[in-house]
Amino acid sequence: MPNLARPAALALVLAFAATGCGADVPSQEGTGEGARASGGHYPVTVENCGEKKTFERAPRRVVTNDVGITEIMFALGLEDHMAGYVMPDDKGDLTKVPWKDGYRKTEWLSKERITKELVLDARADLVFAGWNYGFNEGEGFTPAALRSVGVDSYLLSESCRNGRGKARGVMAPLDALYTDLRNLGKVFDVEDRAEALVSSFREQVAEARAKAPKGVDRPRVFLYDSGEDKPFTSGAFAGPHDIITKAGGDHVMKDLEDSWTTVGWETVVARDPEVIVINDYGDTTAEQKRRFLMSYEPLANVSAVKNDRIVVLDYVDLVESPRNPAAVSSLAADLRRLGS
């Protein structure tokens, strides 16, 4: 079972994740007011979750929430524009990831939840978070609340609400990643770097798809995040949908027009997944989740359980992050192995 991305799958990403990405990438000295004076990059306008946002200069003290969001900034080489990041300490060994230098150079502000007080203490000028990735009306931490104290925000595109209550998702998951890379590339005047990443990620996904199972050989795949009474899983607008389908699987919850959501076990049983992907994070280990699935009586006749076809991917592989393309490659290899 895979853990993080395989070394081969990371090779393409690492070439662009380093701070320079080659001599053609604009230096960070060319951002902000200096860029405006020397040729007029600013002001710039991007569309974020249906809202047009204009930036008069590159933000200088960004606070990010959660691992995938933080690594988007690191992949773009924007550590010098960050005041710090917030995330729990259950995200694996951060010293062995492609963006380890970003973690080394950037302050870990909190291992608890992000708050307005934390943001103000960090003197942030922008918060990069998302609905259910930090922003939450119940806790009073919203873009509107930040705006009231003079702090701007950028919403993770995977988390965009689609107008059906609090349901999330307005575009395909990998498109959300590419959209955020391009938007932030424009906001921070590193568009060449963003395009290089998008190009390398598209190539990596295309290579995985070319080798992936097709047609009747595509196994039915269910994503298990957590929950025993009811499973928390991925709908069509969360990262696992694109990761599963582009890796050669048939996502059994592809008809759910939401990102991360809860379903009933009876639905899982009726759709009879042939492979289950476990989301590895939190206090419950992947092995504990696997033991639960294998011993839970209602699942006894589900094909994935009967044949012990269970794969593990890390949380950061599955939420929107620059590790998504490597996760496609990793899962595609597993589906080929399990189908052989």
Structure description:
- It is built from 14 helices and 14 strands.
- It is of the alpha/beta class.
- It folds into 2 domains: 196 residues, Nitrogenase molybdenum iron protein domain (Rossmann fold); 129 residues, 3-Layer(aba) Sandwich (Rossmann fold).
- The strands form 4 sheets. Strands 3, 4, 5, 6, 7 and 8 form a 6-stranded parallel β-sheet that branches.
- Helix 1 runs antiparallel to helix 8, helix 7 runs antiparallel to helix 8 and helix 8 runs parallel beside helix 14.
- The longest helix is centred in the middle third of the chain and has 21 residues.
- The chain is globular, with a radius of gyration of 20 Å.
- The two termini are 15 Å apart.
- The N terminus is likely disordered.
- Belongs to the bacterial solute-binding protein 8 family.
- Keywords: Signal.
- This is Iron complex transport system substrate-binding protein.
- It comes from Streptomyces prasinopilosus.
State the fourth-level CATH superfamily of the largest domain: Nitrogenase molybdenum iron protein domain
Secondary-structure element sequence?
A: HHEEEHEHEHEEHEHHEEHEEHEHHEHH
> How far from one another are the termini?
15 Å
Q: What proportion of the residues form beta strands (DSSP E)?
A: 15-25%
**Overall mean pLDDT score?**
90
Helix content: 25-40%
Domain unit count: 2
Sheet with most strands: 6 strands, parallel
What is the CATH fold-level name of the largest domain?
Rossmann fold
CATH-scheme architecture of the largest domain: 3-Layer(aba) Sandwich
Family: Belongs to the bacterial solute-binding protein 8 family.
Domain Fe/B12 periplasmic-binding: 61-340
Pfam families: Peripla_BP_2 (PF01497)
Signal peptide: 1-23
